[in-house]
Design brief:
By secondary structure, this protein is of the alpha/beta class. The chain contains six helices and five strands; from the N terminus they run E-H-H-E-H-E-H-H-E-H-E.
Length: 175
């Protein structure tokens, strides 16, 4: 099964570099990015779209679903929950450490990386039982880091910060 993983378009918290889990919609640039991406998606044959239920991902999925396939929303594809860091600048954390799989440092009440990876693994393992040939998935940067680790293993140093997708970037995987 082919998987096309897409990160949602830009939203204001991406620009402001603040931790965001809440239901924030795309900004104008994010809508433009998704519209541009839809031209590329038109060349992909996909059976279904599976998206994070967060608004920025849902909106991206609706824009890029040029073949008008069914969209399913799956909670396991939501972004890493930032807990008490919500709304704060990313500078309140050591970003390398915050996205290090092996770090045991807590900055607040954020979801642990092993928990995030476990729910994404559960999603992907469940997807293996489906009869799809090709799936378009719309999610978040943190989820894309979990996809990377699922298909490539966790880096020896545990560093994941720079392994996530950029806004509307697409990564292809074979499941």
């Amino acid at each position: 099964m082919k998987i096309y993983l897409v990160r949602h378009g830009q939203c204001d918290s991406n620009v402001k570099q603040i931790y965001n889990y809440v239901n924030e919609d795309l900004n104008e640039k994010g809508i433009e990015q998704a519209e541009e991406l839809s031209k590329q998606i038109n060349n992909i044959d996909y059976d279904i779209v599976i998206s994070s239920p967060l608004i920025r991902a849902k909106h991206t999925a609706e824009i890029i679903n040029v073949k008008n396939k069914q969209i399913i929303y799956d909670e396991r594809l939501r972004e890493r929950e930032h807990g008490s860091l919500e709304g704060q600048s990313v500078e309140v954390t050591d970003r390398e450490d915050y996205w290090n799989y092996f770090s045991d440092k807590k900055y607040g009440t954020e979801e642990s990386i092993p928990h995030l990876f476990s729910r994404v693994k559960d999603f992907l393992d469940g997807l293996k039982t489906k009869e799809y040939n090709s799936v378009l998935i719309v999610a978040h940067s943190g989820v894309s880091k979990a996809f990377y680790a699922y298909f490539n293993d966790i880096p020896e140093d545990g560093k994941l910060l720079n392994l996530g997708l950029k806004n509307t970037e697409v990564k292809e995987y074979n499941l």
